[in-house]
Amino acid sequence: MTPNPPWVQALKPAGPQGHELLQLERDKSSVPVAKLSEFLFTKEAIERKRRVLKVLESEKVFNKNQNYFAGRVDRFETALARAKRLRQLKVQHGWNQEDSIVANDLISEPGPYGLHESMFLITLRDQGTPEQHELFLKKAENYQIIGCYAQTELGHGSNVRGLETTATWSPEDKTFIIHSPHLTASKWWIGSLGRTANYAVVMAQLIIDGKPYGPHPFVVQVRNLKTHEPLENVHVGDIGPKFGYNTMDNGFLLFNHVKIPHVNMLARFSSVDLSTNKYVRPMSASLVYGTLTWVRSHIVLQSGSVLARGVTMATRYCAIRRQFQDRDAPQSEKGETAVLNYTMVQVRLLPLLAATFALHFTGQGMMRFYAESQKKIHGNANTASADRGAGPEETHAGSDSLADLHAASCGLKSLASSIAAEGLEVCRRACGGHGYSSFSGIGPWYADYLPTTTWEGDNYMLSQQVARYLLKSARSVKKGEKPTNDTTQILTEFLARSDMGAAFDIIGKDEDLVAAFAWRTAYLTFEAYKHRDEEKKAWNDLLVDFYRLSKAHSQYLVVKNFYEALQSPSTTDVLNEETRTVLHKLFRLFALNTLEQESSEFYQSGATTVRQIILARTNTVMKLLKEIRPHAVRLVDSWDFPDWQLDSSLGRYDGKVYEDLFHRASELNPLNAITVDPYPESSVLFKNDKSRDFKSKL
Amino acid sequence: MTPNPPWVQALKPAGPQGHELLQLERDKSSVPVAKLSEFLFTKEAIERKRRVLKVLESEKVFNKNQNYFAGRVDRFETALARAKRLRQLKVQHGWNQEDSIVANDLISEPGPYGLHESMFLITLRDQGTPEQHELFLKKAENYQIIGCYAQTELGHGSNVRGLETTATWSPEDKTFIIHSPHLTASKWWIGSLGRTANYAVVMAQLIIDGKPYGPHPFVVQVRNLKTHEPLENVHVGDIGPKFGYNTMDNGFLLFNHVKIPHVNMLARFSSVDLSTNKYVRPMSASLVYGTLTWVRSHIVLQSGSVLARGVTMATRYCAIRRQFQDRDAPQSEKGETAVLNYTMVQVRLLPLLAATFALHFTGQGMMRFYAESQKKIHGNANTASADRGAGPEETHAGSDSLADLHAASCGLKSLASSIAAEGLEVCRRACGGHGYSSFSGIGPWYADYLPTTTWEGDNYMLSQQVARYLLKSARSVKKGEKPTNDTTQILTEFLARSDMGAAFDIIGKDEDLVAAFAWRTAYLTFEAYKHRDEEKKAWNDLLVDFYRLSKAHSQYLVVKNFYEALQSPSTTDVLNEETRTVLHKLFRLFALNTLEQESSEFYQSGATTVRQIILARTNTVMKLLKEIRPHAVRLVDSWDFPDWQLDSSLGRYDGKVYEDLFHRASELNPLNAITVDPYPESSVLFKNDKSRDFKSKL
């Protein structure tokens, strides 16, 4: 760190200072920030965050100063040090699972123990027998072995059945032979495998007596527990740099006829019988099904806060950044205007601010829905945590509600992660030139988040599952079967009015606004039904329609969840009038702005009049932007991100944007330690480090 | 480089090999690739590329092997070495300006001489007097001084008038005092300044006798020519890492009352009179105006090829990548399907493929339009290079055509760079998981391109200039003035039919398709006119409408340029029937797909029927995708990107996707040289490099 010269230290930003400008913003609104935060996250969660943050801030290894500067090897090294220290802290402070999650959120970078602590432990726990728990899980929980979950291959992503790695049962010596028959069989993208793990749960095609039984999980040691060198006939390493996620060592893995004992096949659901050498059939797959649904619902819940980080940074900065005078402003107001006052900035940022709440409430709704359906399946109350949150109690009928939940989790995972990823990029660009600096904090966060649009079901692929479910529902409704859940309900209502059409007052009535989204979903569902079932169009020719259908259905679910959350007693009893009014405006902004962006489908379905959509855009939305604008900073404050977590010059709570940008650039930047020889004919590159000589590069 | 073990070296990808799959693709079409390339770029340009490529490939310093792995300091160091070597090669081979541009395109990374070789030289040349040319330009051309162009400040981007840096005329000693009054006055984002430049053209507010005269250019030395250390009272350095562009040393710069001589104010257009100490008024600003128009038109031309790189990589990879079986495929076709066969992939990639051609022809049209208007302004034929290319000759009436050109360049810069930037991200995601690897080549290219959406006029800001021009045109048409260019022509035609409405057959007739875009522009123009001139709405309340208007107008221009290029004799005489048929399908795909995405505006303007838009999407576009699909690989081949330029595992001409991914990951990846100690209680991080000890990090 090189301090700036005294005459530079004496300089301040021109005009009103950042902290003054943010104070002005906070004075414009009286939304009770702390109260709203508690409503969103619970008081306990906020206290937990403060407590864990205090510990992390005091540890040098978690200092983020060099995060944006360091290259891959250094970043990985620091991430490893952090992972180790975090594990030590957990033991030392007796942190539970929730504390650990909060710590990871605050650190905000994927770490080398990431897959060990999630999928490796979960898979051992869920799919292992008691004997296997003793053998593997205990050691894994004590970090005596470090593992990962090796499913995806170089040539195979979403299609698990296409995996090439084989596990061939050898009855002579009662072992499995794990083998990679081709280069494309190489495991690929496997988190924590590249450099860190010495064990892997490997998904491989089970083969008994020449017959394939599909992919199954096998526990395979890949590195020596002492030397950490790869075992014989195992080729393993890191797959190289990525667009983001570079603190994680995603790895590759190839096997050359590697033998593992019988006990290494995870045998809770299916196995090979030792005496008969026969395959033992699996139990129902509903448990795995449930896990995936939980994972996707969790992505929906996270998406709100993922996006909120970007919106927080952009909103605070746009309240400070001033550019040009308002053309129509009176001569007396001579200064430049905060860019947040420009409607073109508002129309980009404020609907995203609305989306953060929409997604948060939807995610909470999904988690509640999941808990309820688990309760029904398992027939006991233990699994259903009585989540605090918005939304009226609903009743769901058994398996129908499970299928509904599954489809909703697929569609919403796709929609929510797309909104968050694309929204973050909108936030970055709304920050103008400085959004491109790593110090903005938005770019690195966006880059790390992007894989969420691909993993746990590619966002495009997933839409087919939603369409399949809606087609099934349409068939049942067409047959005259009674509605059993919300989806069949809205389809039935649509069909009942097919001779009458609709007349939703989307601007005048909130219920009509929600109903218009339901109508569009139903319209598109029956269009798809007509194409597929009546006109017998090829599945592949309908993928674009299916994607639109899935998006429409998921948008309906978000609008509905947002609306219901605002009606719920848990909301109306807790929040004051002003807060509820602002949240209601956010609901309307989110719904009407979404409707306007998808207006052609609303026209075509006859859900709305052309006139109301034009008015919604030119009138209602513009008015809502103006009304929400004064609350923007307080609303992002209520997301309660500590500066330490954001690690952003632009998004600082105190508004010291320019001071922080300058400090990081001039005082923390390692590139400024080198002195260049700039002349083309000189072979010296860095005057103060002659080891980097030009000639050696030729 | 660590070679793979022999058993790994023996492995091949499963199933048909990449080169076989691409050969099958190339066999499906007979579009003459070389012929089409020559048509797009000219034979000379292609030969030039081959010649320069040969030189670069043979130089070790340009080897790209480590580009994706290296950290910031190492990347900058290599970029500096490359910049120096490139300069040496230029001298050695006598390369002209065009050769140099091609070399930079092939190297494809911003370099430390970037701003010296562009804005520094251009500004000295254009704005300097002969005396100043002698003093500064000559030295700069010989690389005895290395410069940059310092305009943007920490607190000031697009609004040049808001710059804070001052240049105060001191009549006593006939000097200017350059000063940064606040922290926000720090120059920021200045390319080549961070570490490389020793001179800068500084834009500063000229102050004479206490009176401000606006921003003017001053030549200021910032570093010692021998030691390269900053001069006294100059604080200069690199601004730190960015989302991309990290081979460039964007810099900051602060002055503490630095004196420079009178001759350092670039004085071709305005100056301070040495004897009277008075300001000498500037000449017309039309020249600068012209330069910006040229720069923007060039961005439009580039955008086609920028996007084409991503489309090339994604198209080739999607032809090789296979996933799932087609649900409706007969049992006999057992294998997985190339993802390019999925309509959901086609509908994302093929309209972008169409856009590459649309933007290329539009860019060529803009460059021709620019040359013509320069010819008119300067009244001689020298400046108008007789560009080969598509499009009929048009006549433009003097200043009207200049204003039209200016507006078109603003709108098209905004639209084209947005299409290219967003399109690249679509290409990256179309590659699924592997798109996230740096080896895909798309992510790094996207990250480097992104600033184009902000510089040379922020894409949102620029739309106001287009709207201003269209409003002015509407006023003239409303007054009954005769149309003087295409814009006033389409407005006049719209007005003439305002009592009749329109009936464009967008599916049946190409001319109607173009006319529907013109109609929508005119409709939105008069809507804006009504809001602003009649209803007196505030400018700020109309920014969203203006942005839509600008987009609509620019989309019309792209559709029109594409259409005219296909009609031009220079196209019809050169290309064979099959090629013209395919290009015509691409035109229709681009136009109809764009129309469908913006359908609500087409409905509202009454340009089209709802029925035709539905049919366009569900029928025409889907059919076009099918028809274009077999030509996709040959079409991207015609963009003629050498593998060396693409530096992409996924986009290789020979289809060796998996071999290349594996080679880079396992054999070139420096992270695989470290051996981790994975246990949390151990303080060792890397077993083979104990200097990186955990304890030192605590």
Automatic annotation (TrEMBL), chains A, B:
Residues holding FAD: 152, 191
Active site: 456
Domain Acyl-CoA oxidase/dehydrogenase middle: 148-257
Pathway annotation from the record: Lipid metabolism; peroxisomal fatty acid beta-oxidation
Transmembrane domains' residue ranges: none
The Acyl-CoA oxidase C-terminal domain, residue ranges: 511-678
GO biological process, one term: lipid homeostasis
Pfam families to which the protein is assigned, alphabetical: ACOX, ACOX_C_alpha1, Acyl-CoA_dh_M, Acyl-CoA_ox_N
Protein name as it appears in the record: Acyl-coenzyme A oxidase
Phylogenetic placement of the source organism: Eukaryota, Fungi, Dikarya, Ascomycota, Pezizomycotina
